[in-house]
Design a protein that fits this description.
The chain has about 600 residues and is an alpha/beta fold. It folds into 3 domains: about 240 residues, Aminohydrolase, N-terminal nucleophile (Ntn) domain (Glutamine Phosphoribosylpyrophosphate, subunit 1, domain 1), CATH 3.60.20; about 190 residues, Glucose-6-phosphate isomerase like protein, domain 1 (Rossmann fold), CATH 3.40.50; about 150 residues, Rossmann fold. It is built from 18 helices and 27 strands. The strands form 5 sheets. Strands 3-2-4-1-10-9-11-15 form an 8-stranded antiparallel β-sheet, covered by helices on one side. Strands 5-6-7-8-12-13-14 form a 7-stranded antiparallel β-sheet. Strand 18, helix 9 and strand 19 form a beta-alpha-beta unit. Helix 9 runs parallel beside helix 13. The chain starts with a strand and ends in an 18-residue tail after the last helix. 5-amino-5-deoxy-1-O-phosphono-D-mannitol binds next to helix 9.
Length: about 600
């Protein structure tokens, strides 16, 4: 939602904070700010601006910041108040002694604000965050830790906080509940950050602050406490992914780099999880007897992860005949779902911090279900609250539009389906062996698709003038169509709808004329003929068709204006292949239209508020 980075040490804070902010910009990019405690005056000096980090850098070039070794910075995705300078973080209290940066939402901020106003505090922004700064200032009588502790006990909602105070240069306080915050352990310096990439070039030693924990950082030590002030022994972990993972590596955008990483992601996953034809998912957190007893599965997820879950539903049901329901997490949490002890909840999330997904699993656990999460972000809230965690290990995904995390989520759901097949065998063994054999070929198939990306770019550019797109697919590629539409609308802002092709006649066909493009996801399968019929119906209404088909399919050329081929595979694995051309179509159209591919408007990488 927002990105925080804080520094305490012996070096100049500003360059370190700005560099960290750049790596957190994917989390929010409508305004940003930085504050340091000046060595000379002892005052906290702040620079803030609307816009991106480059605008903040331009500002600092014109209005230099003084030298200081304690500081805080923030990049924002607006929740309360417009994205302008006044609402940009960090925020002061009245006395300008205390400065805070916040990620999350304070639900009771209005009543707290009224109360503080009655006591004479003056507010200068529309944010919920300023309430926290004022509250800390209100309680502050010289002991910063005590004031933060007292203030956060009054807050309801989700927050990750960084706090500094002009009376305490060399001290940085952090606290979290519901929003991510990590502590980086350096040599003669320490850091706080919303995510690991911000500090990866500084240290690999991190503490994942848990919900309900706060920390006091000095240059030479870090102490972690509960919100009640009880000291806790925090575990220092070593981050294994390398610095290159958070660089563009010669690609013009993170999105295209991450699209190219997909063969390696799948290869790494299969190496780890497939031993011959045996699927190994040790961290699943459920005993064999529990897995055997599952009589219903719910997948809960949001956005792209929801589409991965939908593909998982088709796969798991086909292999096991265990009924799989799928809910957008935001619906699941409020609809009183029928969940019991033999229900398995699969929560799918790249970030592991999505507020709705977290709320959904809490609801499911309250009802007695077991939760297995499929997650990319190590140590995230979701992983801590689940009974079992299947990490996708796709590496950091920086592009706001999810690509490699999506492929990894589908692959992990398919592996889970294969593991559940051990207990409920609904397909002939021979066919499942073929699926596994074909699964192992997916990384090679990906490379073939990527080798043909120039042709996909040409098709995308030729069709980038269309003002509206429809994406159609059937069966296990209905989710692919949904995801193709989401990718396009997210990064190019072209209205795009994803539909099961069979539903076209029940409404969306009204959209079709010579000014609309329709992407038909039509690899070879037992419903291929049905897709061809849909394509004929589109042609009859002059719609322009881009078909995604299996290599060797000459027939489809008669029905489509453009055909993009993917290599053959087992029908149930086709979502793992067709995703790549769909991502590339969206990418090249967005580039052609001059859109900001990695940081599309209004979006943020992880949605930590409802
Ligand atoms: O971190 P999560 O996987 O839980 O995020 C869920 C969605 O917010 C996310 O997939 C979103 O739809 C992306 N922008 C898709 O590209």
């Amino acid at each position: 939602m927002c990105g925080i980075i804080g520094y305490v040490g012996k070096r100049s804070a500003t360059p370190i904070l700005i560099d960290g902010l750049r790596k957190l910009e994917y989390r929010g990019y409508d305004s940003s700010g930085i504050g340091v405690i000046a060595n000379t005056s002892g005052n906290i000096v702040v620079r803030k601006t609307k816009g991106k980090i480059k605008d903040l850098v331009n500002l600092i070039d014109k209005q230099k910041l003084p030298q200081g070794q304690t500081g805080l910075s923030h990049t924002r995705w607006a929740t309360h108040g417009a994205p302008n300078r006044a609402n940009a973080h960090p925020h002061f209290d009245d006395s300008k002694k205390i400065l805070i940066a916040h990620n999350g939402i304070i639900e009771n901020y209005e009543s707290l604000k009224e109360n503080l106003k009655r006591q004479g505090h003056k507010f200068v922004s529309d944010t919920d965050t300023e309430v926290i700064a004022q509250l800390i200032g209100h309680f502050y009588k010289g002991d910063l830790f005590d004031a933060v502790k007292r203030a956060i006990r009054q807050l309801r909602g989700a927050f990750a906080l960084g706090v500094i105070c002009k009376d305490h240069p060399g001290t940085l306080i952090a606290a979290r509940i519901g929003s991510p915050l990590i502590i980086g352990i350096g040599k003669d310096e320490n850091y706080i950050a919303s995510d690991v990439p911000a500090i990866l070039n500084l240290t690999r030693k991190v503490i994942y602050l848990k919900d309900g924990e706060m920390a006091v950082l000095k240059d030479d030590k870090v102490d972690v406490f509960t919100f009640l002030g009880k000291k806790v022994a925090a575990k220092v972990r070593t981050v294994t992914f390398n610095v290159d993972a958070v660089k563009k590596g010669g690609f013009p955008h993170f999105m295209i780099k991450e699209i190219h990483e997909q063969p390696d992601v799948i290869e790494g996953m299969l190496k780890l999880r497939l031993k011959g034809s045996k699927v190994v998912l040790k961290e699943i957190g459920l005993k064999a007897s529990e897995l055997k007893g599952i009589n219903h599965i719910f997948v809960v997820a949001c956005g792209t992860a929801y589409h991965a879950g939908l593909a998982g539903k088709y796969f798991i049901e086909k292999l096991t005949r265990i009924p799989v329901s799928i809910d957008a997490a935001s619906e699941f949490r409020y609809r009183d779902p029928v969940v019991g002890k033999k229900t398995l909840i699969i929560a799918v999330s790249q970030s592991g911090e999505t507020a709705d997904t977290l709320a959904a699993i809490r609801e499911a656990k309250r009802k007695g279900a077991k939760v297995v999460s499929i997650c990319n972000a190590v140590g995230s809230s979701l992983t801590r609250e689940s009974d079992g965690v299947l990490y996708t290990h796709a590496g950091p995904e920086i592009g706001v539009a999810s690509t490699k995390a999506y492929i990894a989520q589908i692959a992990m759901l398919f592996l889970l389906g294969l593991r559940l097949y051990d207990f409920k065998k609904a397909l002939p063994k021979k066919e499942v062996s073929r699926i596994i054999r074909e699964f192992k070929k997916i990384p090679g198939r990906h490379k073939e698709i990527l080798a043909g990306k120039d042709k996909i770019a040409k098709v995308a550019k030729k069709n980038s003038h269309f003002g509206c797109f429809l994406f159609l697919g059937r069966n296990i590629n209905y989710p692919s169509a949904m995801e193709g539409a989401l990718k396009l609308k997210e990064i190019s802002y072209i209205p795009a709808e994803g539909y099961p092709a069979g539903e076209m006649k029940h409404g969306p066909i009204a959209l079709i004329d010579e000014y609309r493009a329709v992407v038909c996801v039509s690899p070879q399968s037992d419903i291929y003929e049905k897709m061809i019929s849909n394509m004929q119906e589109i042609r009859a209404r002059k719609g322009k068709i881009i078909a995604i088909a299996t290599q060797g399919d000459a027939v489809i050329k008669k029905h489509a204006n453009h055909v993009i081929y993917v290599p053959p595979t087992h029908n149930l694995l086709t979502p793992l292949l067709v995703a790549l051309p769909l991502q590339l179509i969206a990418y090249y159209i967005a580039v052609q239209l001059g859109c900001d591919v990695d940081q599309p408007r209004n979006l943020a990488k992880s949605v930590t508020v409802e």
